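Kindly inspect what follows.
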Amino acid sequence: MKHRTMATLLAAVTMAAVPMAAMSQEMPDVHFKVIGGGSHNYTFSAVEKPFWEKTLPEASGGHVTAELAGLSEVGLKGPEILRLMRRNALDVGMGVFAFVSGDDAMLEGVDLPGMAPDIATARRMVRSYRPALAARMRDHHGVHLLATVPYTAQVFFCREPVNHLEDLKGRKIRTRGRNMADFVSALGGSPVTIAFAEVIPALQTGVVDCAVSGIGSGNAAKWYDVAKHLYNLPIDWSIGFYAMGEQRWQRLDPEVQRLLQQQADVLEARLWDETARENAYALACNSGQGECRIHTPADMRATQPNDAEREQLRAVASQVAGQWGKRCGAACAGAWSESVGQALKVTLP
């Protein structure tokens, strides 16, 4: 009886495996040309390239393949990514919400400044906002969201010491995006728009006193050569995305859709986990204290807000979020309050 039961189970497993094998054989061959983020970023080579060129093909049994190129290698700047995907001018693309949200304030809600003092909170924000975000990208931009992409904390690299929050008052600070500029203004700083590649000479000549960028990307660009002081106040996490045009998505075979979304979830989890690891190492590398991996050892003096200042920062974040909510509109602010607001226990003023 026991032998018969085991045989029955083995037969059932074998029968169940047959449709899956047939399904794999029936999956059409698809090749994606993927435009990723900056190839200078650590996660590009550590996570994105091996995913698209090895993990995804292996998961599909060789039916779904991809080749990855960096944004700058194909001559793109970033803000045009949504438009190109909507027009099916590229297969899969990676963008940063702060760069593509010029015509749609709703997209900024995924990464409002000052709301996430750590990457775990940022991840909770994005997870709660994702359904509304995906619907907006599909319905208003004709784009299918595949995965979210975090970068290291956007912090202050400064020429002069920052011992207290009030030390930022009156300083000229390089920012990117309207919300970040509003946040810096609320702290008493003067936001200045400067391209990333121009930051070092701007710091050298005093065009700016501080510059905000990822704690990892600032190290990779050797900002520590001219900015000896790091103020570890994460304004945001430069949240981005991988997506493809909705029309292109709908034309895919259902099995390819299923596989691609399933594997995009794998990519997303790896990116969040690896960025959290990179962020910790980047702080250690910049400050010369702790275990330094991935980036270059430097000798910056690192400081951070105290408990009283963190209370002040929460008020500033709420103020800037309220400004964003008015600019975005009642429906947009309501969607944010029902998702991110509930997750973080934050009410828009």
